[in-house]
């Protein structure tokens, strides 16, 4: 009896925690198919806006592409020699936009002049109650992380129930 009560308490706590979570704690993961012979000039407009705390996850084929973070001049000149960071192992690379600034990424395998470069401006999250139009654009993107929170709560509840048996 005592245990069952504890389990229900855990359920309530999980539900309350879920409801109390502000939208700003959700981080977006934005997939980048990082492909040679691709012009990424319209990519930012299509996939943005980007906010501080969002993640870019580059998917690429090792040996055919790398992800090199450079500064603005490196981006404009497709010059990786002053790389801030470069990544070329595995098949994906996750990068957190943890500052509000413009990030520049290029590929150093010769595809940059053909358009394989990205300038991503990350901005602060909009205030809690943006006008409906802005909210609409953001809501679809938030569905993923919200589902993650719900899953986490469900797992926590399940764990509590198992302990109670
Ligand atoms: C980029 O870095 C290079 C080398 O450190 C530097 O000479 C150049 O001024 C920088 N450009 C910008 C726009 O910060
Ligand atoms: C990437 O980084 C490694 C070591 O940090 C360096 O040897 C290599 O030249 C870099 N490549 C590019 C394209 O910046
Ligand atoms: C952002 O991430 C980079 C690399 O992970 C780290 O070096 C830097 O200190 C971080 N900046 C902030 C403001 O957290
Ligand atoms: C990439 O696309 C943009 C916009 O369509 C265009 O202005 C630019 O010239 C293209 N770049 C290359 C290298 O084809």
TrEMBL record:
Identify this protein by name. Answer: Phytocyanin domain-containing protein
Provide the coiled-coil residue spans. none
Residues passing through the membrane, by range: 140-162
The job of this chain, per UniProt, is described as: May act as a carbohydrate transporter.
What the entry lists under Pfam families is as follows: Cu_bind_like (PF02298)
UniProt keywords (A-Z) are:
Disulfide bond, Glycoprotein, Membrane, Signal, Transmembrane, Transmembrane helix
Which terms in the GO cellular component ontology are assigned?
A: plasma membrane
The signal peptide, as residue positions, is 1-27
Q: Which domain of life is it from?
A: Eukaryota
Family designation? Belongs to the early nodulin-like (ENODL) family.
Q: Which residues form the Phytocyanin domain?
A: 23-124
The protein's GO terms of the molecular function aspect are: electron transfer activity
Instruction: Show the PROSITE patterns listed in the entry.
Output: PHYTOCYANIN (PS51485), PROKAR_LIPOPROTEIN (PS51257)
* Gene for this chain: LOC123107854
